[in-house]
Amino acid sequence: MTVIDWDVAVNTGVRLVRPGPQVDLSDARQAVAQLRELSTVAAGHVREFTGMNPLEPAGPAVIVDRPGWIRANVDGFRVVIEPVLEQMGADRLNNSPAGSLTSAVGSRITGVQLGAVLSYLAGKVLGQYELFLPPDPDGTLPTGRLTLVAPNIVNAEREMDVDPRDFRLWVCLHEETHRMQFTATPWLRGHVQGLMQELLLSSEMDAGDLIGRLRAAGEAVADAVRGGGESNLITAIQSPEQSEIMDRVTAVMSLAEGHGDFVMDAVGPEVVPSVATIRARFQKRRESANPIDRIMRQLLGMDMKMRQYEEGAAFVRAVVAEVGMTEFNRVWTSPETLPTLAEIRNPTAWVDRVVRPAAVNE
C-alpha cells in the first residue's frame, strides 16, 4: 500500500513552483560553471580551516533548477520514509482507524500536500547536502550529494545587491561544511537517519489521537495567521515521546547548521572580501520576509530552523574560543559525544562532559 504517491508529489511540486529570475542564457551558463568551480574551491578552504578529512571523493556540486531540487528531495523522502512504512507493516496501517485515511485517495492527497510544500521551499533554498539518496546499484557514486539551486542564488544576490562571486563562494562554504561533516564522520549519516525513522515510528495513534493532533494543527494554522504564539505544524502533531526524539534531532541539526554558519563566516574574511556586508544583508533579508512567507515559515517550522542556526553557531563559537578547533572536533567522535539540546544552550556543560575527561585520560 502506498501512503504517499511520490509521482503526484513531484508533479504537483513542479507544476506549482514559481519560475526563477530572468537570466540570459550566457549568464546562466556562467553562473552554473562558476558555482561548480567555487564548490571545489570552498571544499579546500573548509578542509584547511576545520582540520576534518573527507573519507570519500567530493567532486564539484551538482547544480539544479527549482524542479530539479523538488525531484531530488522527493527521492530523499522515499529513502527515509519507505523503510519506516515497511517496518510499520501493512497490517498496522490497514487495521488502524488511521489506515482508512491512507487509501488510494489519501495517498494522492498526501502526495499533493508534499508537492505543495516542496514547491514553496524550492523557491527559498540556496543549497543543501542531500544526505539520503537512492542506493547506487554499482556502488561507485558517493552516498550523499551537494546540490546548489542556481536560480535562487542568483535571485538572492540580485535582491541584496552583493558581489556575485563573493556571495556564491560564501554559500558554497556553508554547504561544503555540511558535506565535510558527513563525509569525514562515517557514522553520522546512519545516526541521523535512525533518529528520523525513530521519530516516524514513535507515532502510535488511534483515531481519537489523530483527530486531536489534526485539530491542534488547525489551531496552529489559525494562530500563525493571527500572528500569535510560536505554533507550528511540526510541534502541533507531536506526542511527548516524539518531542523527546525531536530534541535529539534538533540538537544534531543545530550543531550541523551552526557549524556551517560558523565556518562560512570565519573563513569568509580571508577569501570573501565583502563577507561582512553579505552577512548583514542576508540576515536582514531573513528577517524581512513578507507576511505570507512569515506564515509559511512558521507553519513549516522554518523559524525553528533559524534559531538552530543561531544557537548552533553560538555553541560552536563558544567551544572553539574555549578549547580550540582540534578539541571541538571531538564532537564528531561518536553519537555519545554529540551535544544534547541543553548543552547546545550551555556549551561549557559539553566541554565539561566531553573535552575535559578526554584530556585527563590522554
From TrEMBL:
Superkingdom of origin: Bacteria
InterPro entries named among the record's database cross-references: CHP03883_F420-assoc (IPR022454), Zinicin_2 (IPR018766), Zinicin_2_N (IPR042271)
NCBIfam families xref list: DUF2342_F420, putative hydrolase
The protein, known as: Coenzyme F420 biosynthesis-associated protein
